Amino acid sequence: MRERREMRMRLTWMIGILTLLAVGCASGEPSPQPPNADIVFDMKEEYRLGEPVEIAVRNHSDLDYYYQFQYPACYNLQFFDDSQESRPYPNAEPVLKQRYLSPGRFIVPRGTHCDTIWEKSIDPGRSVVVFTWDQQMCIKDRFGCIESVPVQPGEYLIQGEFSSAARVIGPGWDRKPDMITTISWSLTIQPP
């Protein structure tokens, strides 16, 4: 039973990657812009191990889009590898009830201690680096990542949520699905 579930998860991952590739991406170049996309990732497809990954987003609409400036990895971005492993949340201390992340998901160090709310807009026509990922995965969190490890070469997926209205994506805010756009970007981390 577990083997079938893992196989389905891997197939889902592969279908997602193939779908992203079918949109037509040129290796190492900025992301192609689908004709009807309001907001897209604007970054390379390949990085060397240890190279900082600047996660940029381009706004093609005539509206402002919003993100959490201080901690976008807490509220706007999720990171996945192709392992399909359901990792426990990286608590440094024992907890009464362990939370598990979605298959393949991991937490980056700046995606832990998420107490500051500072929203910024991405103006129409602009591309903004919302986060720079240092290719680290948090393995111990105590109100902030206290221990991390480098990721391995391989395939990674970044999912982002951005809102066309202020105060929609953040702690305790009223999520309005019709105002949230979800985007994805696949990238490869090559050996050094």
Written description of the protein model:
It contains 2 helices and 12 strands. The chain is mainly beta and 192 residues long. It has a single domain, classed as Sandwich (Immunoglobulin-like). The chain has a 5-stranded mixed β-sheet. The chain has a 3-stranded antiparallel β-sheet with strand order 1-3-8, with no helix packed on it. A two-stranded antiparallel ribbon has the order 4-7. Strand 9 and strand 10 form a beta hairpin. The longest helix has 21 residues. The radius of gyration is 17 Å and the shape is globular. The N terminus is likely disordered.
Structural class: mainly beta
Provide the residue-averaged pLDDT: 84
The first-level CATH class is given as Mainly Beta
Q: Flag low-confidence runs.
A: 1-33
Shape: globular
The counted number of beta strands is 12
Number of domains: 1
Intertermini distance: 38 Å
Query: What fraction strand?
Result: 35-45%
Strand order of the largest sheet: 2-12-11-5-6
The ordered H/E elements are HEEEEHEEEEEEEE
Radius of gyration (Å): 17 Å
CATH topology value: Immunoglobulin-like
Main β-sheet description: 5 strands, mixed
If helices are DSSP runs of H or I spanning 4 or more residues, what is the number of helices? 2
Per CATH, which architecture?
Sandwich
Helix content: 10-25%
Question: What characteristics describe this protein?
Answer:
192 residues, mainly beta, 12 strands, 2 helices
